[in-house]
Amino acid sequence: MGNRKTMPAAFIKIKGHQCHLKKAILGMVFSLCSKYKIRKGNGRAESHFCSAITVYIMCGIIGYTGNSCASPKITKGLSVLEYRGYDSVGIAAANENEISIIKCKGRITSLEEKLSDSLLQESHTAIGHTRWATHGGPSDTNAHPHRVGDVVLVHNGIIENYMEIKKELTESGVKFSSETDTEVAAAWINRCYCNLKDPIPAIREACSRFTGSYAFAIMFENLKGEIYAIRRGSPLILAEGKDGYYLASDITALLPFTPKYHILDENSIACLKSNEIKIFSDSKDACIPEWKITSITPEAAQKGGFSHFMLKEIHEQPEAILKSVSPRIINGLPDFSGDGIHGDFWKKIKNIQIVACGSATHAGLAGGYFLEKLAKIPTSSYIASEYRYTPPIATDGTLVILISQSGETADTLAALRYAKAHNIPTLAIVNAVETTIAREADYKIYTYAGPEIAVATTKGYCTQVSVLYMIAVAIAHQKGDISDQTAKELVENISQGAPKAISHILSQRNILTEIAKKLYRHEHVFYIGRGIDFHICAEASLKLKEISYIHSEAYAAGELKHGTISLIENDTPVIAIVTENRLYEKTESNLREVKSRGADVILICRDDISSDNHSTDSVLTIPSTSDVASVFAAIAAVQIIAFDAALLRNCDIDRPRNLAKSVTVE
After folding, report:
1. Which contiguous run of DSSP H or E holds residue 157?
2. SS3 sequence, 559-603?
3. pLDDT of residue 85
4. Hey, which residues does 212 pair with through a beta bridge?
5. Which of 366, 477, 499, 584 has its CA 20 to 30 A from that of 594?
6. Residue 494 pLDDT level (bands cut at 50, 70, 90)
7. What φ, ψ does residue 169 adopt, rounded to 5°?
8. If you count DSSP H runs as helices and E runs as strands, how many of each does the chain have, helices first?
């Protein structure tokens, strides 16, 4: 292909004709919930990270009581929560004489069909739920809400000791109709309520028996117009509207109704009535919530003219990076004083442990590369679900950085609490404001990415990497390793160069689609890279797996000859990423190795690299204005490639099978 320095900043040439390939198998279903068994722990749920796919579990809860019809509000809130993933849905609404329940396996549209002929439309008090099956498969019976005696409830989380409680209740004559831990929780709360005759002490006594995580919204048959709520481990948010009070597991479900919210503290009990709301804690009398106003608009949780949330969020990345880094720039230099982190803090850091799950783990690996390269700080990244079982040694000057888009990730929260229990300073990088991880960490940095609705993270990952890059520059500058001028140049590279590079790549959609066409019919795809490019490959591979269901693996390019190259067959797509000139020659040797074994080689590299057309079939060039700009351009490129491959395979891109958005249970 000659010297491509003279070519445009985005260029691709596909040699020859595409081969006719066998159609990839679309029905490769992973039964993750049964494969990854729940195990008892310390009372806090964890999630599993797996190299093949990331498991996300999060049910959706919405509740309302007031002077308006409840069911339209509930179905609207549930529709907003669809992005979390679910397999069944239900609603319980209080009429004059009783609480009625309608629930079904399937989508919200099926529930709405049942509601159209129901008297529940006239109710002013209701709770609703989207369920992701854990205990018991998807079915009408296992769907929430559940009723036992006077108690009707919905639940997000897992009651880990439910079998022990179920055995005790069964021996006393209680009969169960479902396979769920939630029905057991309802039965135990009902027993306590029958004994105590008062909902607050009954809920508190019942929950003292439960281990695991939960967010409950509870109604009692004889307490019409009232909803009770309590949480441990799982999120639950209260809200005040003009026509009543709300609760939900996610603030996005509340945005259509009100901007006023209050995050319920763990183990506090909220009582919602049509005209008031009170919160009861162990140590205090009933109190009124202190309402805050969210800056998130209802429009932020809409597609905004894009076909998919994921595509919208990919295109939001240039602005998201700017929002993440600009509050941390003063006079052109990195400054985190607005986050309560002053320069002297960074000088004390001698080593860093980054703890995260899924894509946030990959962000941590990329950020760790910058921390070691720029700040010369030894940095290690850990999968949160493993951190406290094999904790690394923490010495004086150790900082633990926790990364979580939702701020509620159970494994990351457990790792945070482990670090705090061992007196290790903690810093949280989160997107969602005032979430549990943000509140409990010693220091917090918000990414300000805005709502991310698509299950597969894009701008969340991008902003996490950008914040870690800024931290690396801040430490290097505070330690005197780089001058003011160098620091300013590095800051400009991320604040101006990276957004421009992403925007340029996004303007090359037709080229990226051509690459996706080379992938989407295959069963296996491999990403290879060196240095930070290997970490980009890990995220690229995960994105492709998550949304297109194509099996993909990421490998350090130099590891191919140590066994992995045996997987290369004729026409196997191999995508190599090179954002550092110094690593191209070594990576190019690896490309020759796979090319000689029949691989269809796609190279994503800087536009100032002269690639060898004998080792590649396709080349996509990315801007080379700076190393960090090239990194973010490559990230955007592989995101679009994954998106287009999934689109060509007719996949449900925003809601991939077996996945939901937030990880709050094991």
Report:
1. strand 151-159
2. HHHHCHHHHCCCCCEEEEEECCHHHHHHHHHHHHHHHCCCCEEEE
3. 67
4. 159
5. 366
6. very high
7. -70, -40
8. 20, 26
Of the residues 35, 59, 197, 224, only one is catalytic, namely 59
Nearest to 386 by CA among 15, 19, 50, 662: 50
Residue 60, strand partner residues: 130
pLDDT tens digits, 53-111: 223 346 789 999 999 999 999 989 988 887 666 778 889 999 888 899 988 888 888 88
Which residues lie below 8 Å from residue 109, measured CB to CB, with a gap of 6+? none
> CA-CA-CA-CA torsion for 618, 621, 627, 628, nearest 10 degrees?
-100
- In what helix (H) or strand (E) does residue 214 lie, and over which residues does it extend? strand 212-220
Q: With contact defined as beta carbons under 8 Å apart, do 441 and 402 qualify? A: yes
250's tokens: 């996610």
483 three-state secondary structure: coil
Residue 22 has pLDDT above 60, yes or no: no
Indicate if 661 belongs to the active site: yes
Active site residue 35: no
Give the number of other Cβ atoms within 10 Å of residue 312's Cβ.
20
Contact in structure between 622 and 634 (CB atoms under 8 Å): yes
The whole-angstrom distance between residue 340's C-alpha and the CA centroid of its chain comes to: 26
Helix residue ranges, H only, 198-316: 199-207, 309-315
The b-or-e profile of 228-243 (16+ CB within 10 A means b, else e) is: bbbbbbbbbbbbbbee
* pTM confidence score: 0.77
The total number of residues written for the chain in this structure:
666
> How do beta strands 398-404 and 426-430 pair?
parallel
Two tokens, residue 611: 């690639």
103, 166, 224, 661: which is the annotated catalytic residue?
A: 661
Q: How far apart are CA 52 and CA 50, in angstroms?
A: 5
CB atoms within 10 A of CB 330: 11
- Computed over every residue of the chain, the mean pLDDT equals 86
* Distance of alpha carbon 666 from alpha carbon 663, whole angstroms: 8
Bridge partner list, 249: none
Strands (E), 308-432: 329-330, 333-334, 351-356, 379-383, 398-404, 426-430
Phi, psi of 417, rounded to the nearest 5 degrees: -65, -35
Q: What is the mean pLDDT of residues 342-357?
A: 95
* HSE of 288, CA atoms in CB hemisphere, 13 A: 5
